[in-house]
Amino acid sequence: MPSASPPVHEVPAKLSLVENLVLGVVAEEPTYGFAVARLLEPEADLGRVYRIPRSVVYRTIEHLVAAGLLRPSRVERGNRGPQRTLITATPAGRQAVQAWLAAPVLHVREVRTDLLVKLALLARAGGDGAALLAAQRDVLAPIVAALREQVDMARGFERTLALWRFETADAALRFVDRVTS
Asked: Which of 19, 94, 140, 153 is in the most buried spot, having the most CB atoms within 10 Å?
């Protein structure tokens, strides 16, 4: 009789911000879905940066388990409610979140969400985010320079649009510079 083969997990090519955030929290230490959801409530530690509804947190955990990035490590009887499942990041999950945390965002529109979430997770782990911020500066500086040229060359509404994009990118770059100083 042939031995049972291990389950094949289909790991998404690119995880969403929600998936990376949930994976990042669980990668810090084994935890419960309820604890992850509490961190992402509006007034909670990470929820001040990016709020995720509890139902979405639980669905995301299920998806990450199916992808082989998280795994249930044990089931415990709840104090006053249903059973609780302790979840842990797999080696592949820890590797995925480390790579994501090190990568700068590629679009200015992602600075408010993705970059701030990454910085919050790095700070929770005791890191300073200096390497990420340096890489982020390297991404933003040429964008700002190119947009500055577009503003100088554009006329009419095209100039208005170029100016908006330039000011937004320049503000993101100034933010990165101030955080690192």
From this structure: 140
Q: How many residues does the chain have?
A: 181
Are 83 and 28 spatial neighbours (Cβ–Cβ below 8 Å)? Answer: no
Residue matched to tokens 């701030």: 116
Q: Which residues contact 30 (CB under 8 A, 6 or more apart)?
A: 73, 86, 87, 88
Residue whose entry in the numeric block shows the structure tokens 């089931």: 75
Measuring CA to CA, which residue among 116, 119, 108 is closest to residue 171? 108
Closest listed residue to residue 102, CA positions, set 114, 91, 90: 114
Within 10 Å of residue 46's Cβ, how many Cβ atoms? 21
CB 176 within 8 A of CB 133: yes
> How many angstroms separate the first and last alpha carbons of the chain?
64
Q: Output the CA–CA distances (angstroms, integers) from residue 177 to 31, 103, 113, 174, in the order listed.
A: 35, 17, 18, 5
pTM, two decimals, is 0.86
> How many angstroms from the chain centroid is the CA of residue 64?
14
Per-residue tokens: 174: 């100034």
Classified as helix, coil or strand, 51 is: coil
d(CA 174, CA 31): 36
pLDDT in tens, 66-109: 999 999 998 887 677 778 899 999 999 999 999 999 999 999 99
